[in-house]
């Protein structure tokens, strides 16, 4: 078996773990974090082998964030309980989108000026927005899905532009799962908000 064959197998395994990770995240299953940890660790190996060092650094950061998210979902709630779904305040959401915009401009400019990047600004956007989405997901914020949706939409366009049709197909699946996750977490948020009123009503009946 050649080194290329080995990397193909590693990539296939990483893709499977990625799909399972997103599906478990939609279900708010704590196993999304160890599954995601396997995925990003495998991509560290993959990106090192093909000398994509920016993606390598990004996925090393992901490893740290996966460990943090795993712990925070388990112990980040009130009195170190399980973390519930919550929403950002409008001002905080606006701030995060501002950070995303400024980060995209700065990173995109750097990539255009000092590298031979094919799509510097779209690539910069997916990098910055992915980091924000991952952080908000670790905090179990509903708005994390909006960032993932935007990342997937842009990524699909970039991969089609670069004729990476299989990867574009994968990110189309991620897009569908992200939209599904948005609605699923929103239902949980509404259900949790209504639960105290239902409990009071039951106690009075």
What is this entry, summarized?
The protein contains 7 helices and no strands.
Written description of the protein model:
The chain has 205 residues and is an all-alpha fold. The protein folds into two domains: 1-81; 88-205, no CATH class. 81% of the residues lie in helices and 0% in strands. The protein contains seven helices and no strands. The longest helix is centred in the last third of the chain and has 40 residues, at 165-204. It is globular and about 55 Å long. The model is unreliable at 197-205 (pLDDT under 50).
Descriptors:
2 domains; disordered C terminus; mainly alpha; 205 residues
Counting structural domains, the number is 2
Helix proportion range = over 70%
Q: Which ranges are low-confidence, i.e. pLDDT below 50, for 5 or more consecutive residues?
A: 197-205
**N-to-C order of helices and strands:** HHHHHHH
What is the terminal separation in angstroms?
A: 70 Å
Shape estimate = globular
Count helical runs.
7
Identify the quaternary structure here: single chain
